[in-house]
């Protein structure tokens, strides 16, 4: 059967599944509002994004990007300093673009969500009380008014593709919207704090490191319940729980 292509499951959980078949990524999502956002955000973004080959709800077919991911959470990144700086420059281009027409999460929504997740982490015993309390305190630095920019909203390093020192594209735009620029920078460097200097150099302006650390804590606290309930392990080396433990030493 010479024309049969291998099907690779890239990620699968209760909300969506992404598969690769040849040079296509097939994203199956039961919530079409997320897919609507993803498609429109890729049209509006001033940086490289995957080509939409076709869409037949609940399936979105995207062309594979050239290159490889900038890195993976929990693993050392082999990408060059120049590649990380290029990622920072691409993020700056996105943040300088006109705002998307739909809103992002409000400060009050994020704070309420954070309080609920912290309470769940403590009452269920998933994390020690002192670890949650310290990181909730650190997260306060992020909970301040910001000037909204066009944010990716889920800019983890596995969503940024590079070839050599060049950015070839950014994937997974379903969380895009109006938000805090430093949230994107924190998401990109989560678990790779040693790369923050390269990213900021490419971004081209000074950032408030306390706010970045606040978003590292906040994003990790918010993620743990979802990861556990969807079959992922946030306590793997270098992942969310280690990010939170680093704040005890900082």
Description:
By secondary structure, the protein is of the alpha+beta class. It has a single domain, classed as Aminoglycoside phosphotransferase (APH), C-terminal lobe (Aminoglycoside 3'-phosphotransferase, Chain: A, domain 2, Alpha-Beta Complex), CATH 3.90.1200.10. It is 42% helix and 18% strand. It is built from eight helices and ten strands. It has helices spanning 32-44, 81-96, 107-123, 129-139, 181-189, 196-203, 209-229, 240-249; strands at 7-12, 16-21, 24-29, 52-56, 59-63, 68-69, 149-151, 160-163, 166-170, 177-179. Strands 1-2-3-5-4 form a five-stranded antiparallel sheet. Strands 6-8-9 form a three-stranded antiparallel sheet, with helices on one face. Helix 3 (107-123) packs across helix 7. The mean pLDDT is 95.
CATH topology: Aminoglycoside 3'-phosphotransferase, Chain: A, domain 2
Strand content: 15-25%
Structural class: alpha+beta
H-E order: EEEHEEEHHHEEEEHHHH
Shape: globular
Strand order of the largest sheet: 1-2-3-5-4
Total E-strand runs: 10
Q: What share of the residues lie within helices?
A: 40-55%
Tell me the CATH architecture: Alpha-Beta Complex
Q: Which characteristics define this entry?
A:
250 residues, Aminoglycoside 3'-phosphotransferase, Chain: A, domain 2, five-stranded antiparallel sheet, globular, alpha+beta, three-stranded antiparallel sheet, single chain
């Amino acid at each position: 059967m010479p024309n049969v292509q291998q099907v690779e499951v890239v990620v699968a959980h209760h909300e969506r599944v992404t598969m690769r078949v040849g040079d296509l990524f097939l994203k199956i999502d039961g919530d079409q509002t997320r897919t609507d956002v993803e498609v429109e955000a890729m049209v509006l973004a001033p940086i490289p994004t995957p080509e939409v080959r076709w869409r037949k709800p609940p399936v979105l077919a995207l062309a594979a990007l050239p290159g490889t991911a900038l890195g993976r959470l929990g693993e050392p990144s082999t990408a060059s300093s120049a590649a990380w700086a290029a990622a920072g420059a691409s993020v700056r281009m996105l943040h300088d673009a006109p705002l998307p027409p739909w809103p992002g999460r409000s400060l009050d929504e994020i704070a309420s969500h954070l309080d609920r997740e912290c309470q769940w982490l403590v009452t269920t015993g998933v994390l020690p009380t002192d670890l949650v309390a310290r990181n909730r305190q650190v997260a306060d630095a992020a909970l301040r008014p910001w000037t909204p920019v066009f944010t990716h909203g889920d800019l983890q390093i596995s969503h940024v593709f590079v070839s050599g020192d060049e950015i070839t594209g950014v994937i997974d735009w379903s969380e895009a919207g109006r938000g805090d620029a430093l949230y994107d920078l924190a998401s990109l460097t989560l678990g790779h704090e040693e790369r923050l200097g390269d990213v900021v150099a490419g971004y081209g302006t000074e950032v408030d490191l306390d706010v970045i650390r606040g978003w590292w804590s906040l994003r990790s606290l918010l993620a743990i319940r979802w990861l556990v309930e969807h079959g992922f392990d946030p306590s793997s080396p270098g992942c969310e729980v280690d990010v939170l433990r680093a704040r005890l030493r900082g």
